[in-house]
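ugh ok fine here u go
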Amino acid sequence: PAVIDGSLAAPGLLTWVAISKYLDHLPLYRLEQIAARQQVNLSRSTMSEWIGRIGYALQPLADRLAEMLKQRQVLHADETPVKQLDPGAGKTKRAYLWSYRSNDLDTGPPIVVFDYQSSRSGQHARDFLHGWQGSLMVDDFGGYKKMFATDAQFAVTELACWAHARRKFFDLQVSGAHPQAAEALRRIGKLYAVEEAARAMDHIARAEHRQQNSLPILV
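structure:
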């Protein structure tokens, strides 16, 4: 069956348009120019309609990926600002691409799901993860905090991100604002080495390895 009913666009052409736009970051007007050099009349308005239809066709796959993601016990989340055209306003406004991904140490295949939203409200994360129980690794953004509260409807454990913590100490070291920044960076580097050594271990052996090697670094 055709991806788009009644369309002459084959799956290969639709795939090329989608990959060129979202993976190679080529705007549709450039794809129009590329097609024209090959003597192919392919308007950006047509491709824009295709993109919308492709998204509709792939929605069941995105929903299934989200279901599979929420079967994992450890997830990562982050939100990235993006510029969104505001029709009629003559300018752009800020929207957010919320990202949720599985943990690198999971035995299953990696999963990443993006949730495009108009704001940075923590309600978006709570809606996406509704019903999920596990451990969530995030930065210190306050929008996630309601999920970690002891009286929350969520059974979610907060995992703080060492990469974000390291960035703050690095900035302090560069500015010379705090003499202990170098020591903090040294300890975080040792933690990274402990994690690298444990990468191939199962979760039981990794937990024991961390207790023996990571804990002394932090106390």
